[in-house]
Design a protein that fits this description.
This protein has helices at residues 11-14, 209-214, and strands at 3-5, 17-19, 34-36, 61-63, 76-82, 91-96, 101-105, 115-116, 130-132, 141-143, 163-169, 172-176, 182-186, 190-193, 271-273. The strands form 4 sheets. It has a 7-stranded antiparallel β-sheet with strand order 9-14-10-11-12-13-15, with no helix packed on it. A 4-stranded antiparallel β-sheet has the order 7-6-5-8, with no helix packed on it. It has a two-stranded antiparallel ribbon with strand order 1-2. The longest helix has 6 residues, at 209-214. The model has no long low-confidence stretch (mean pLDDT 94). It has 281 residues and is mainly beta. It has a domain at 23-201: OB fold (Dihydrolipoamide Acetyltransferase, E2P), CATH 2.40.50.140.
Length: 281
């Protein structure tokens, strides 16, 4: 995958870049594997906005991606690499020997014609194969990882993401996640070998507000620009600081760098090392 940069013919083109889609081998999705995607505009069942900055956007179908890959020990052949508008990574259309087709999250360097397999036992360590963490050697990159055995992949699914197997100790496997967090997972949890495709996605620049609107992202207004009734940072004449010790959300809770995770959360015991702190600009 590469990035295409246009000549700055207009203001919107000047800082914009787009995906070149050279890795895509099939344009139209498989009809049996798509569903109509209903849009909420960030509103709940009462019609009130519960998630801000959502609305509009291009119509799109939802692709039924198989995160479990529970068809064990049956080889599948990669038929196509496709674009999925609902996620940053690519998806691969695979066909099993019995003729069934499924979508999976495509790993980097997976090619059309490759044969992959999912198994509860030990299979060949190659890109696209899926097995339990206890059967994956230490130091290998994995993605689409289960948190509970049999539940289906829940973490490490976005473009370019990968986790690294660190060790197997007792009932648990030790993994280093993309955030830098090191945590324990049940050794029976399934994971796929490799890293998620489309790693250059993070370098794409939208360039103009219109492309955000096409993605269904509405404008975000600064709290400082609002009135006191609308935001804790609001009010004042002209350009003012927020006037508080710490930044707050519209609902008065601390924002930017404040830890919100509960100290007594049951899964804290599985976290060996916390994620690396990111500096806010």
């Amino acid at each position: 995958m590469g990035i295409k940069i246009y000549k700055p013919n207009t203001s919107g083109r000047r800082n914009a870049s787009v995906d070149d889609f050279k890795d895509i081998t099939k344009k139209e999705p498989e009809k049996l594997l798509i569903r109509i995607k209903k849009r909420t505009g960030g509103r709940n069942s009462q019609g009130r906005i519960s998630v801000r900055h959502r609305g509009g956007g291009e119509k799109k179908y939802y692709r039924l991606v198989d995160f479990k890959r529970d068809k064990f020990d049956i080889p599948a052949k990669v038929e196509a690499i496709e674009y999925d508008p609902n996620r940053s990574s690519r998806i691969a259309l695979i066909v099993y020997r019995d003729g069934e087709r499924r979508y999976i999250i495509a790993p980097q360097d997976l090619k059309v014609g490759d044969e992959i397999v999912s198994s509860k036992g030990r299979v060949e360590i190659k890109i696209g194969n899926r097995m339990s963490l206890e059967n994956i050697p230490v130091g290998f990159m994995v993605y689409n990882i289960e948190l509970v055995p049999g539940q289906g992949g829940k973490i490490v699914r976005s473009a370019g993401a990968r986790a690294t197997t660190m060790a197997i100790e007792g009932k648990y496997a030790q993994l280093k996640l993309p955030s830098g967090e090191v945590r324990l997972l049940p050794r029976k949890c399934m994971a796929t070998i490799g890293e998620v495709s489309n790693p250059d996605h993070r370098h794409i620049k939208l360039g103009k507000a219109g492309r955000s609107r096409h993605l269904g992202i509405r404008p975000s207004v600064r709290g400082k620009a609002m009135n006191p009734v609308d935001h804790p940072h609001g009010g004042g004449e002209g350009h003012n600081p927020i006037g508080l010790k710490k930044p707050k959300t519209p609902w008065g809770k601390p924002a930017l760098g404040v830890k919100t995770r509960k100290k007594k959360k049951w899964s804290n015991k599985f976290i060996i090392k916390r994620r690396t702190k990111r500096k806010h600009k």
